Amino acid sequence: MRLGLYVNLYADKADRPRLADAVEQVRLAEQAGFAWVVLGERHLHRPGYHEALTSLAYLAAHTERIGLATAGLIAPVYQPVWLAETLAHIDVLSGGRLTAGFVLGYRPEEFTLFGARPGERVPRFEECLELLTRLWTEDEVTYKGRWSEVDGAYLSPRPVQNPRPRIWNGGRVPAALERTARMCDGWTTLFNETDEELPEKIRAYRAHPRGPRSLGAEVIVCREGYAAATTQRARDALERPLRGLYDAYGDWKRTSMDAARYAQQWDDIVARSVIGSPEECTERIGRYAEMGADGLVLRVQPPGMPQADALRAIEAFGELNA
């Protein structure tokens, strides 16, 4: 099972604008055999949240082999040509290590910040990915959409990867699974997707027809994760900071259809996570492989967890996956 490390980009008064902790974690994950470092995106967050694309470029400069992924960028708020060019350059700078993961987004204030409307997010998403994919793979692109128009456009340089970097998309409703199969190469689950829901959704996703530019249909399961010598040590390290994160999600997602999922009890969260002793975590990872997952992205450090605890978890998962 390929493992990804979801890196905490939350800033605070003590570390803004440094990313030293993230670099330390990602270098350790690279040594431990993780397949990807994975970054999310958030705006209008206090006390701060490091911008994803410049952070990805920064991590590329401090690593050698580990894949660089997003899960995910809010595609509907971006100007597609700028996004295609910036991501292509990250692929070039990293020597071909980019995986570009996207989401529709859900916070009205983030759409307003970028001059977009939530009600336009699906057609904006599709227009963005259509133009981005064509610019990555074609010598010259002429395109006219609702929000973007280019005539004879091209990228120079184009991405290193041939034919292009892989594209992931997140979402849980049937329309999102169909859209992912049609326009992308992999589906990233939400962190709060339950184990009971996953097998059917994986089957549904893979049953949808692939689009003409698709490079496959991989499934990347996102989970809270913490491995320690004993179950109790793992739970003790993760519970307090993770509860704080889920409380914050309950506020951020107040307008989202899945807001209630972040109000679940701690035992419910543990039941759908990879938390516990090495034996328990190994069993959980194996269960996701049996469901059909191709990769597992682990969030081991919610905001407020000490760096030393995060490093211990990364080392422990590296030993499990050796």
Write down the overall geometry: globular
**Cα Rg:** 19 Å
Count every helix, treating DSSP H or I runs of 4 or more residues as helices: 11
Oligomer classification: single chain
Count of distinct structural domains? 1
- For the largest beta sheet, what order do the strands appear in spatially? 1-2-3-5-8-9-10-12
Q: What distance lies between the first and last C-alpha atoms, to the nearest angstrom?
A: 10 Å
Task: Profile the largest sheet.
Answer: 8 strands, parallel, barrel
Structural class comes to: alpha/beta
Overall helicity = 40-55%
Organism: Streptomyces pratisoli
Protein name: LLM class flavin-dependent oxidoreductase
EC number: 1.-.-.-
Keywords: Oxidoreductase
Can you give keywords for this protein?
globular, single chain, 8-stranded parallel beta barrel, alpha/beta, 322 residues, TIM Barrel
Question: If you had to describe this structure to a student in words, what would you say it looks like?
Answer:
The strands form 2 sheets. An 8-stranded parallel beta barrel has the order 1-2-3-5-8-9-10-12, surrounded by 7 helices. The chain is built from 11 helices and 12 strands. The chain has one domain (2-320): Luciferase-like domain (TIM Barrel, Alpha-Beta Barrel), CATH 3.20.20.30. It is globular, with a radius of gyration of 19 Å. The longest helix has 22 residues, at 231-252. The mean pLDDT is 93. By secondary structure, the chain is of the alpha/beta class.
